[in-house]
Structures are given as structure tokens and as C-alpha cells.
Task: structure prediction
Amino acid sequence: MSSVTPPGAGAAAAVAVGGDSYLSHDKGLRSWIFTLDHKRIGIMYLVAILTSFFLGGVFALLVRTELWTPGRTIVSADTYNKLFTLHGAVMIFLVLIPSIPASIGNFVLPLMLGAKDVALPRLNLASFHLYVVGAIFLLAAILTGGVDTGWTFYTPYSVTTGTSVILTTLGAFILGFSSIFTGLNFIVTIHKMRPKGMTFFRMPLMLWSLYATAVIQVLATPVLGITLLLLIAERTLGIGIFNPALGGDPLLFQHFFWFYSHPAVYIMILPAMGIESELISVFSRKHIFGYKFIAYSSIAIAVFGFLVWGHHMFVSGQSGLANMIFSLLTFSVAIPSAVKIFNWLATMYKGSIHFDTPMLYALAFIFLFAIGGLTGLFLGALATDVHLHDTYFVVAHFHYTMFGGTVIAFLGGLHYWWPKFFGRKYSERWGKIAALLIFVGFNLTFFTQFVMGSHGMPRRYYNYLPQFTPYHQASTIGSYILALGFFVMAGYLAHSLVKGERAPANPWGAATLEWQTSSPPPYYNFDHEMTAGDPYDLDTVRFVSPAEGWVPRTEGATS
Amino acid sequence: MSATHGGAGEHHDPHLAHHFETGEQQADSAKLGMWIFLATELLFFSGLFCAYAAYRANHPEIFIWSDQFLDKTLGGLNTAILICSSLTMAWAVRAAQLGKRRLLAVLLTATMVFAVAFLGVKGIEYNTKWKHGLLWGKYYHPHVEAAAEHGAEPAPAAPPAASGKAPADSSEIPPSAVGPAGLAKHPRGPISDIPETAPKNVQIFFSIYFIMTGLHGIHVIAGIIVIGWLLRRTLGGEFGDGYATPVDNVGLYWHLVDIIWIFLFPLLYLIR
Amino acid sequence: MATLLHCALLALAAAPGTPGLLMPKEASTVAPEVDHLFYMVLGISAFFFLLVVGIMIYFVVRYRYREGVPAQKTATHNTALEVTWTVIPLTLALIIFAYGFKGFIDIVTPPANAYEVLVTAQKWSWQFTYPNGYVDKDLHVPVNTPVRLVMQSQDVIHSFYVPAFRVKRDVVPGRYNKAWFQATTPGEYQLFCAEYCGTGHSTMLAKVIVHRPGGFEKWLADASNLLKTMSPVDAGHHLYEVRGCKQCHSIDGSGKTGPTFKGMFGHKVVLSTGQTITADEDYVRQSILDPQAKVVAGFEPVMPTFQGRLSDQDITSIIQYLKSLSGSSQGGKEK
Result:
């Protein structure tokens, strides 16, 4: 039983203000740049990722603005091609892949384990520095004229184009190592630093998802590494391995590339599902339903995710047998994700559902990820994929899963753990407004793209036939509403940092260990050894007041 | 149970980091971390092994033809060198565990010497290939050794596939330069399956050869640097107390570098 | 209930020959099968989406937080339920897979004796070579006849896509990829390039013209003969239109990827090396066969070579045509 003295508002405030939290523990820029504290590293990642998201978002708005009219609207075809390439590359490599694990994960994982840090703190710092170096390479690519290959770098186009391919691929290569080191660290930490009482099946599901994600990061990313290295060698040394004129095979590049890039999307979605499990349980005030199935499904997604890469290549000319096998396996990977949605709904059954901002994002996730996942069925089926491949249908599908899934869950997690990170609350009213703007804007932006796609509108198109104009214009309007939502969010979050009400240790009433230390935590995380209970036994806490939040029930109370 | 902050237990272990409870937890964590890193290295190389497999399955004639240009003796010598270096490295780990600093220093040095010898032999091989124009991709311009006329056959990048030809069902890859016959250092026996003239696209083999051995060589260089770092620490007074974790983990890395070569050798040198 | 939904969706679907709410007009033999699968998956998806969101909204209203009303205790797992909601989606998924696979076999298996057309894709235009050697920029086919395409790329990966036929196949350099279709309705259909290939990817369009019975043979005979009966200037103009020049070179003075042909012939051009030369017959010929040799200043060196693809007679016709665009006695007839 936890022996933390009930942290009243006074205690939490003491740590946050006069006391020593991880934020105030050491001062100066050097103390952040050379920190070994996983919490500081997580916050630095958070800032970097949000900045990258802003950059990727600007590219997106430029793309959507250009697509307001069929011909030239604001930029040339070459510039447009660079804009969508950079939008993709920035969003995938600088935002989505690291997003949850590197920022929220780094901060929360050791705390959920009752540990003082990750297993390899110096490796963690190295991981962050590699992220920054990789980002600098991508920035250099942007500043030296950009790159216009599409984020997928298909050969031979990527071998012959004159744009900054090498800088971009080097950047992605370095970012890959950042990702590998994060994953490596998480696996070791989860294996070796669980507290007493926390067997694998007593871990919060967030940790199961981070674990499965880490396995993918560690096994898949090296293949991206060698692929990019070979592309660089192809451009600089002319090794010819992907060049038909020198005896090479362009399809080999696609196989190598997608062998990583498909599991990569599971790197993006698994942590999101982990957050979803936490949010649904806490804000329904109910134990998660089907813990074991959810845990196993995370591992199943990680394993099956490695077997389906060929579904990106159904029309490439690969054999019919390969097509059949990949299609079959693709359907198998859909099932674990579907199962989780039912588990979350069952968790809500007969609960007591609160509508705080994190929960709004959790509910939006179910809506949006359901659409994203179901539209994957159209693409996994061979006959329909022939028609839909490389159209806007695909663009809509992956935005519903990656944005409607990963980013929405990330925002939910951000709002959930925000009080823990910074010891501050944000405005609930403005939080809800932003969530609504984002939800409406998102659907307007992307739903019309399904229809455009099934009508045959190809993707990566600067010009388009006039009959698609209404769809494009609706989509562009949606993107501006989305942007507005994010501006509102930036506003109230910034305000919260400066003027937000102090947050108690456990504002939401969760039972995982990170809520049993102050908000924000001291630099050493916990002042005594932690023992784990059932992470979803919400009866272990009771509500006191908005200022004091939830506190552990004293011994002898009903459990 | 153990105390709240690391190190306030029975004795203060100078190697114990503050976030670990025990030295054993720390050593286990480091080792698990290294094993996972080795897994990533394996996958890093796996792409190249896949490329090898794909091209060899589809164009075996390229590999059979190229076998004559690789010196099995030098390759075998390098294999023996690396195996010896693995022996000295493993022994070095033992020395560290026993706190025998002087022995450790000697063995680390021996490992580095073997590694440098490996690179030396590789250098000789690369040099020979350079002289004969047996390079990768677009730089593949094979010509007769030494005595010869600079009769390097020009091998321009092939023209794009011509249109208007009768379509064939198999892939039509434009031809590269035709390699000369009889370039092997050692006389071939009565081998009937090596064709008279070079097949198309021999440069694919050399692209794969240089990328695989080159990447492996980079890992050998990295290993030399890291072992050198261990040597510096040993000479600076460390590893006398039985704390062997860094040596142990570098040893694991070195064994992987060795194992990768043990796969590369037959695939590249022992095709026939 | 499911059948009702299914029927409702089929009603939304395209009746043969008319565009549906979600799909283009069905104009090939495989299109109905593809659309049938599409609407089946749509039905299943809509059902599950409405189920999930419906339950979610119901729960969120019914079980919303009320002061003093705690959450109720329910089972934290139920193996029978969890297995059920795993097995049912899995079964549906396998059914979808099976239909998808079957449809795919039909999409990629041409009947014997299909009429063969050679397709050449290059940045950024299409060329279709008919069995008699005639080359056109659009794909003409007879109705109700299986047509097999053998496709090659001159440079990077492109993709042949005709939405109305539900057919798509990448065109990969270094190999021949094949596709086939049988058009069911005469008319004109849009062809897109569906694999990103650079600056002109979105302008790499073409038309598929499906001729009524008898119409195709007549068209081909006329089109092939035209070159024998046209003046060299007109033949040059035709080549300009169909052999890919038009995509990058305008004839009205406007700027495109390459220099405009209007008023070019016989005048001075400044090269990227700084040298100034006259655009004469040799210059035109060289630019066609070895385009990187002399590049006009201000333009990128992206023109592909036509070595082996334009005959000497073709080049001569083109030269005559270009002369006519420089204000010499006869202007070329605009088609």
C-alpha cells in the first residue's frame, strides 16, 4: 500500500513553487542540454516535436492553398512537389515517429514503473541530440532548395532528381538512430526496472504499447537505415543497385523501403492506443475491459505489422502470389485493432463518464480511427486497391489513421499529462473549443478526399481536372479550421504555463504510479520505493476537491 | 529491502549509477541493451543479404562469373584473422572479470592488431580490384592486368530501353561493358560452367561486394576505436576490480562483427 | 437489415454507363465486379462504424457523470464475448479478402487473343504504339474487345490508370509490365499517370477513346495513312502533338519546361554555356538526338533523347514544321 502522505494542494504547490521540482532543480541552458533526467529530455522532445508539427502544418496549409484552384494558385509545380514532400517527411520523421514515445513516453514510462530514470540515461540524451542533428539536416535540405521525390523516395526518380535528396535521407538516417535508441532504452527499462508487484500483466497498458512500439523501432528502423544508405550510395557512387540502366531493380528499393515504413505506421499507432486505454478507463471511472486481449493485441500488431509491407506494391508488378499473401496478412492485422475498439467501448459500459478535454480526444479517436481502419479494408482487398491505389482515397485513409489516430491520441495524452509535466491546469473551456474546431476541421478536410479518390483523383497532383474543384475547396476550408483549432490550443497552453492554476498530484483520479508523486515531480521522481497494484483499480483513490484532486484511500476502505 | 537512493546499501559500489538498485540490475541492463543493439546491426546488414539473395537468385551467372575475381586465400586468411581476434577479445573479457589488468591490456592490443591486419588484407584486395577496374556500378571498367594496353572497353551508361521492339516477357536490361576473359590470378581448372564471355551486368556483383565489405569494414574500424577506448581506460587504471561490463559488451559487439564476416566470406568468396 | 443496407448501397452505385455517387461510370468488364466489392465493403464498414459510434454516443449520454452516482462494477473481461467479437470481424475480413483476390485475378488475367498495344511512358507524356507501327498520344481501342497493354518506361516509374475501367498498373523502367481491359461502352475516358514522376506528373494525361464496332479499324487505317498523305509541315505538326514535344514546348510563345518553338528556327539562341548560336537544321537535329549537348540558357537539362525513336524522315518533318513557326512563307495548319 502506498505510503505517500496525501499530497494536498499545499504539498504540491510547495514542490512546484518553493520546492524543488525537476523543472527548477538545476538552472541554465547547459543543465538542460546535458541533462540525464528523462523528464527534461521528454520536455525537450515535446518542444521539438511541437515545433516540427508547426512546420509540417505550414507546409500542409501551403499545399491545401495551392489546391484551391485546378491550375496554379500560389506556387509552381516544382515548388508544390517540394511542399508535399517536405510535409510528409517532416510529419513522419520529425513528428509522428517520435511523437508519443519520445515526448510523453520518455516522461511517463519511468514514472509508471516507479523508477528514477530509464535504464540508459546517457543513451536517452544521445537519442535527443541525434534528433536535433537529424532535424538540422532536414532543415538544411529545406533551405538548399527542398526535395521533390515524395517522402517515399522511389527510385529511379530519387536517384536522378537534382534536389536535396542526400541531405534529406541523411537526416532521416540519423533520425532513425534516434528512434532506435529510444526503443532500445524502453525495452531494457521495462524488462529490468519494474517495481515490486509489477509483473508484465500488471503493467499499465500504456507500457505494453510502448514496449511493442519499441520492438518495432528496434527491428524495423535499421532496414530503413540500410535502404537510405544504399540510396545515398546510388546517388553519390553510382552503385546501380536500384538503377535498371546498370542492372539494378527499382522494385527492390520499394521492398526495402516498405519493410520499414509499414511497421513504422504501427510505431505511430500503438502508443496512441496505449494512451487511449488509459484515458478511457480513467474518464469512465472503470477498470479497463479485457486487459489481456489488449496486451496481446499490441504484440500481435507488432508482429503482423512486419508481414504486410507488400500491400503498398499491389500494382507495382510484383507477382500475383506475393499480392495474395500480402493481402491475406493485411486483413489479419486489422483484427487486433478492431478488437481494441470493442474493448474500449465495453470499458465505458456502466461507467461514470467525464467530459474533460482528454476524454474528448479519446472519444474523437474512436470515431476517427474507426473510419481510418475501416477504409483500410478497401485498400487491403486486391480488386478495389487496384482502383484506389495512389488516389486521394489513400491520402484520406492514412490521414484518418495517422492524424485522426496518432495525433488525436497524442493531444489527448498531452492534455492528460500536462498537469503532471508542468504542475499547471489549462482552461477547460478553451480546451473543449479547440477540440471541437480540430474535430470539425479534420473531418471537413479529409472526408471529401475519400470521395475524390474513389472518383479517380490521383494523389500528388498539382493540377487537377475541374470536376474535382468543389471537393478540393471543401478540403482547403477544413484545413484552415484545423489550423485555427491548433492556434487556439497553442494560446491556452501557453497561458497555462504562465498563469495556469496549480495542479494537484492526481487531478484525474488515475491509479498508475506517476500520479503518486507531485505535479510536477521532483527530479528524483519518488521519495520512496514504489510498489505496484492493479493500475486500473480506480477505487484506490478518492476525490477530495478540485484543488487537491484525488488522493489514495486510506487502508481498510473497500477496494 | 534496498534503500531509496542508490548506493546507500551495504557498501558503496563506485560503478553503480543512481537510478539502479543493484550492480547486477545495472550489468544486466547494459548487457540486454547491447544484445538489442546487436539485433539492430543484424537487421541493418540483413537488407544487404536480401539484395544479395535477390540478385543471385535472378542472375546466378553474374555471381558465377565474378567468383574468379575474388582471392579465396586472402579471404580465408582474413577469416582466420578475425576468428583469432575474437579469441583474444573473449579472453580479454575473462581477464577483466579476474581483474588482471596487464593481461587485459595485452589482449586488447592483440585484438586491435588483428583487426588492423584484417583491414590491411582488405586494403590489398581493394587495391587489386581498383587496378583492374573491377569497381561498382557505373565505375565498372574491367581491363587486362598490368602489361596491358589501356584498352579499357568503354562502358557508357546504357541507352534507355528502345521502343518499337518486339516485347519480351523477361526483363530487358541493357548490356554493360563486356569483361575480359582470363583475368584470374590463379589458373582455373577444367571448369565447364564458366561461360566464355562475361554475362551482362557484372557490375551488380561488385556493387554488392563493395557495399557489404565496405560497411563491414566501417564496423571493424568502429570496433578498433572502441577497443582502443577500452585500452586507454585499462592503462588508466580501470578494470582491476573485476568490473568487466564495458569489456563484456564491447566483446559482444566484436563477436558480431566476426560472425557477419563469417557469413560474408562464403557468400562472396566461395560461390563455386 | 444487412441486406437492406446492401441494397440501398447498390442503388447508390453506378448503373452501367452512368457515374455513381462514389465511383466513375463503369466502362469495362471488370468494373462491375470491382464496384460490387467496393459497395460490399462500404456496407460492412458503414454498419460497423454506425454500430461503434452509435454505442459510443449512447454510452456517453446514458452513463455520463452524475453527482453522487458512481460507476458500476462490471466484469473486467469476458472471454466468450471477446472471442466472438474477434471471430466475427475475422470472418468478414476473410470474406472480403476472398472477393478481392478473385476480382484481382480477373483484373490481371487477359483472355487469349487480346489486341496488343505497346505503351511507352516518359516524363511527361504517353505514347501508344499500335501493331502496325503507328504511334499516337492517345489510346484508341475497339469496344467489347480485350486489349492487352505491354508497358515500358523510358525513365522513372509511372503508372497507367483509367478510373472508368478500374485498371491501374505501374510502368517500371527496365521491365515490361502488363495490363489488360475490355471496354464495354463507346466514349472518351480519362487516363492519368498515377505514380509521382516529377514536375509534369499531374499533366501527364491522355485519353482512352473507345470506338463503336467498326470504328477502330477505320480510325487506325486513316491515322496511319495520314503521314503518307500529309505535307512535311503537317506531319511535323502531328509529331509535335503525339510524340511528346507538346508537353514541354509551346508554339504560342508561352513558357513551359522547354523553350517555345514560336519564332525559334533560324534565330539566335543563347546556351547555358554562354555561347550564342543559330537554331538551324543541325541544331534541331542534335537537340532531338542528344538533348544535353546544347541546352538553352534558363532551362533545365531534362529533355529525354529520341535516339532510335524518331526516324530521319520524322526529324526532317519536324524541322520543316519548326521553320513554319518562324514566320516563313507558309504557316503550319493548326489542327
About this structure: Chain A touches chain C through 90 residues (CB under 8 Å). Residues 37-552 of chain A form a domain with the Cytochrome C Oxidase; Chain A fold (CATH 1.20.210.10).
